[in-house]
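Hey, can you fold this one?
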Amino acid sequence: MTLFFIILIKIFPLYINVMLGFLSSKFLHVQRESIAALLIYILGPIVVFSAAITVKIDFAVAILPIFLYVFCSILAFASLFIWRKSWDNPTGNILAFSAGTGNTGYFGIPLAIILFPPSLADIYIFVVMASLLYESSTGFYVTAKGNFSVKQSLKKISRLPILYAFILGITCNLAGLKIPEEISAYTAQFKGAYGILGMMMLGMGLLGLKSNPDNFDKKFISITFIIKFVFWPLAMLGFIYVDKTYLHFLNEDLYKVLFLFSIVPLAGNTVTLAVLLNAKPEKASLAVFLSTVVSIIFIPLAIYLYGGF
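Sure. Predicted structure:
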């Protein structure tokens, strides 16, 4: 179990950042919206651009975000079909959204930076685009039961500055352009800032969480936890087994990226969409909070059982 505790010690500072975020919001009155604006419009695009221009793109790396986007979308539609009538409010739609994604950005990117060498962390950041595109297209669609048009969904995607940073980074990468070494040390600092502020923002979101028995929807929490902490890792391990045995598309490093992608907690945007749909966002907030707490033990245990990174 020594490996388990080594991994636990490595990732535990992330949870300290969550607590710092909570304290800064409670006592210093730091606004979550301001931090979100920094992450979305400044730090996020720089981090994504830096990863996209640096990552070595080959067939295996290029296919990963495509595969994950398709997988996320299929899982979301399947969940919507199974559970859409289980509640008398849009909770089933929120569940479908959460089934297809996880906190791959604010939580996953700091994890990748801690656990992976820089080159592999860049590949993970590259793959996170699958989640961003899913949340703004398929995820957006399933939460609204199809009431929003494809045009509205595309308009939402077009407003993502990270998307343009990704496209610019890939374009520069394919053109053979690189970030000068004198500047790369500077841009690398944004990854750390993104990870710290992203985790702090999770803590800021806990400030309005109130203890209310009505918020504890046992069915909703049980289903989301089974999908996120059981189905996702097993599905990725199944794909890894098939690829190792038959397909031979990927390599050991990319298997680690896939597995890390599958073990992060519930996505924070689940709460945002619950607010928009008036589907008892306190219930979604509690589920996201509990999944983050569970991940303190689950993530190092999962990595330990996988064999370590």
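The radius of gyration is 19 Å. Let me know if you want another pass with a different chain boundary.
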